[in-house]
Design goal:
The protein is 22% helix and 40% strand. It has 156 residues and is an alpha+beta fold. The chain starts with a helix and ends in a 10-residue tail after the last helix.
């Protein structure tokens, strides 16, 4: 999984110690109601499209950038789904991170879903009743997005 340059610079100083990072997740639906997923190259698991924001980057535009970079899909944000803490996550190389994750419900605008960088080994659209195995948190995000009532989800 390609880490942003600013993370690589920090890692040279702190090693594998825990790092707090801003993350984004997009639950992208096409006109048929299918959800866009990528099979991550770092752990081989299916997941919605996620990413780490660059310093000073706004979450919405940062997510739209991540979706395009990773899948070739142009997406538009419909709504803020929620804000959550994810982690700690230990990556295969030993790096430990906690993420303040901002989740959005998105819709497909244009582009054909494909592997568009080295962060995924497969990309595709999935019907809600035919999702591949995913971590519970990702499944929960997809389920919330599918029945979104306009109220963002976060711990109160």
């Amino acid at each position: 999984m390609a880490a942003p340059d600013f993370v690589l610079k920090l890692r040279r100083q702190i090693g594998h110690d825990p790092l707090w990072l801003p993350g984004v997740k997009g639950i992208v639906f096409d006109d048929a109601g299918r959800v866009l997923l990528g099979k991550r190259s770092d752990n081989g698991e299916w997941a919605p499209i996620t990413g780490i924001l660059e310093p000073g980057e706004e979450p919405g535009p940062g997510l739209v950038r991540e979706i395009l970079e990773e899948t070739g899909v142009v997406a538009e944000i419909d709504a803020l789904l929620g804000v959550h803490v994810v982690g700690p996550v230990t990556f295969p190389n030993g790096d430990v991170c906690d993420f303040l994750n901002v989740e959005f419900r998105c819709r497909h605008v244009s582009g054909t879903a494909r592997v568009n960088d080295d962060e995924s080994t497969a990309v595709g659209w999935f019907a809600l009743d035919a999702l591949p195995p995913m971590r519970r948190g990702h499944r929960d995000s997809v389920a919330r997005a599918a029945v979104f009532d306009g109220v963002p989800h976060f711990k109160r």
